[in-house]
Amino acid sequence: GAVVSQHPSRVICKSGTSVKIECRSLDFQATTMFWYRQFPKKSLMLMATSNEGSKATYEQGVEKDKFLINHASLTLSTLTVTSAHPEDSSFYICSAERGREGIEQFFGPGTRLTVL
Amino acid sequence: GDSVTQMEGPVTLSEEAFLTINCTYTATGYPSLFWYVQYPGEGLQLLLKATKADDKGSNKGFEATYRKETTSFHLEKGSVQVSDSAVYFCALLHGTASKLTFGTGTRLQVTL
Predict the structure, then answer these.
(1) CB burial class (10 A; 0-12, 13-18, 19+) of residue B112?
(2) Which chain A residues are Cβ-neighbours of B32 within 8 angstroms?
(3) Interface contact B102-A44, CB threshold 8 A
(4) pLDDT per residue over A50-80, tens digit each?
């Protein structure tokens, strides 16, 4: 159990377009989901924390209007990269916290975004 | 703020060699500590964890002991296999916000 999926796994888009990435908890309800960005040879950087039914909490330095997060249900959170630019190219990873256990997050396989 | 420092990789070992990947942390109080593993093309998976000082987490032959006095959580395995080739991340969880702080990751390459 505790499987998290992401879709798409890879996406290539033109500069100026918007891209939506989905994160789903397949076999459990996730009250809290997290979005990370992973740079090459660097660590995962937390972008935002998303709670079902409420606004996401963004980390310092992350543009809210650039990275739109919606957590509409207990099994789905979406990240939309608006007006994407080449510098937004990265590996985006989501994780989900099962119920209110708090201690463990389950990670999706990631989405590779390339902006041309 | 909280931070995690890992040894830089890549680490290249022959099969059956002993593995140590160092991890130290900076945090106030008593964070929970984790090792995650990322196999090629896959997401992060929890490898092991420890929630209090002197706890030893273990899984799949890997071990790490939560050392409060040295603020360390070094990952060890007595005999690595080719299938252990992956990137290993040390992380800590602190406070009530469930925010994980990750190290930069250490790539392990095991050869025959």
Answers:
(1) exposed
(2) 103
(3) yes
(4) 988 888 999 999 999 999 999 888 899 999 9
